[in-house]
Structure formats: C-alpha cells, structure tokens
Amino acid sequence: MTVSFSDPAFSVSTLSALVNEENFVPSRIEKLGIFRSKPISTTKTAIEKKNGELKLVPPSPRGGPGSTVKDGKRSLVELAVPHFEVNDAFYAESIQDKREFGTEATLKSVTVAVYEKMLAARNNLLATEEHARMGAIKGVVTYADGSSLNLYDELEVTAPDKTWLDLSNSAATDGALRRACSGVVRKIMDKLGAYPMTGVHAFCGDTFFDDLITHPEVRETYRGTSEAAFLRSGYVNEEAPGAYAAFSFGGIIFENYRGGADATFVAPTECRVFPLGVPDLFISAYAPADYMETVNTEGERFTAKIRQMANEKGANIDVQMNALQYCSRPELLFELSSEADPAA
Questions:
Q1: Domains of the chain (ranges, CATH numbers)
Q2: 43, 322 in Cβ contact below 8 A?
Q3: What is the per-residue pLDDT across 220-278, written as a single tens digit (0 to 9) for each?
C-alpha cells in the first residue's frame, strides 16, 4: 500500500487534533484546574495592571448623586511566549515486518507508528508544561536551558517574605503553628481586597508534609474527630490515598505534591501557598505555531506536522507547544519552609 503524507489524514490540523484530544492522566496542577487556557494569535501576551482604590461608600440621599470611585492607573506588561518543539523521524524500515503491540498477526501501520512518535513527544511537552506551571505558582518560571521568567520583576511587585515554621522544634508555643498558617491566609485576603477567593491551597515537598502531619499541634487538632483516621494511617485523601495526599489545617489545604524524581518541582522542605477561585490568577497563554498554515491564527495547546523525506524512505515529525504559564498577581504567592529561620 502506498502512503502519501499529503493525505488529509496527515495534515497539520488533523495531527494537531489527535495530539490535543488524546485522553491522558492529567498532572496534579492540570487536575486542580487553576490555569485558564487563553489562545492568542500573537507571540506575546499582555497583562494589564490596575491599581484601583478601595474605599468605604457613605450613604447618599435617594434620588441624589452617588459617590464616585477614582480610576486606578493602568499599565500594560508584555511577556513573550516561549517556543518548545520536539523533532523526531520515522523510517519505513523501522516498522517493516513489525507486529502491532498485543497482536500475533497484525502488522504495524504507518499511521500507528507516526501516532506513537507524536504521543511520546507530547508527553515530554506535558512534563515541560507542568514544570512551568509550578514555576508560575512560585512566581519564577524556570526552563530546561537555564533561562527563567521572574514574574515579580516583570510585574514590578515585591515577593512576600518566606515563613519559617521550624516544624521540628519540640519546644514550640502551643497554637503557634496554627497562628502562622492563619496569618498567611489573612495576608492573602488583605492583598486581594475586594476580589473573591474560594480557599487557599498549598503544594508541599515530602519532608515538609511528613513533618507537618506528625506535628503535635496537627495531631491534637484531629484527635477524637471523624477524620482522626489519618493519624493512624499516616495520610488520608479520598482522591489520592497513600503517601501523596492532602489535609486541611489553619485555613490551608496542604497537599503532598508528586512531581517525579526532579526536586526542582517542589524541594523537600518547601511549601508553596496560593489562593483558589481568584479570576484569571493563573493563565496558560497559547500562541500559534511557526508554520505557514498557522500564522496569525489562535494558538492551540499542541501543534503537530509531518514532512516526507526527499528519498521517500521516511518522514520527519514535529510536535510543538508555544505556551506561557504565568501568575497575573504574584504578590499573592507565599512560601513556607519546615526549617527554622537561619537569621533567628
């Protein structure tokens, strides 16, 4: 059978749809659903800053003039959308006489071989996206080439001071841990002002989570309650039973983040705190791919393209992601540490 890569089945739109629509087990940040997808038709995205004035409104006579609210100063900050691309190649010889996985007689087709290559590339891009989203939660996005995007610098805001909890301190004052956690929640709410939120979440490293869940103050809080089972089993979460779980304390849902062997996702003693339900706090901006077919069109999460080799013995496969993960208000992001303050 003759295979033509000019067939519509191998077009950019068809391949991109296959890569984007394939079901997969989402990453934790993806599953939490805090990043809003924002397709854009340019390679830059703009963040509008508005420092409005929040004030109490006095009573006014019925039928008379009301109070006026002063317009805040507006400014635009442009951020470039980075380009991520995975290149691979497929050779006809690589599937000659090869069977489909799990079958005894069915020979592997070109379509299946190409699709497997695309899925492998997409999985690498998914890991890249997850890492960038964690960076956005921290306020500084780092990339594999060593470059970074410091959202505090770009948006000209000051990063909140780190909170040192000293979880291994056996002589800590009773109630000090809850007071510290509640203090972080209050700071977030103060910075939000009139903006709504639905809760506060935290991603914790392994050491931080283990020290927190075994802390006397936490154990005493849950002892004798219907949720005291976590004291016996160690970790309880209906959605994620086992070591990587979550529980609520001091107004924060603490979750042991599972990001793989790479400690750069969340360090062992690190904990990153952020509000939930704040409109457009976290954004995934997707720009168009750098192909003629996609110029000045709205970007997709992934774009795929295949080109037949000149000798017709194979094809080159590209899967790319043009995506910027960012937090529009990084001053709402807080860092906790299980360690003692080195300056104390």
A1: 8-48+75-149+291-327 (3.15.30.10), 161-280+330-337 (3.30.1930)
A2: yes
A3: 887 766 665 655 554 545 455 445 688 899 999 999 998 765 556 899 999 999 999 99
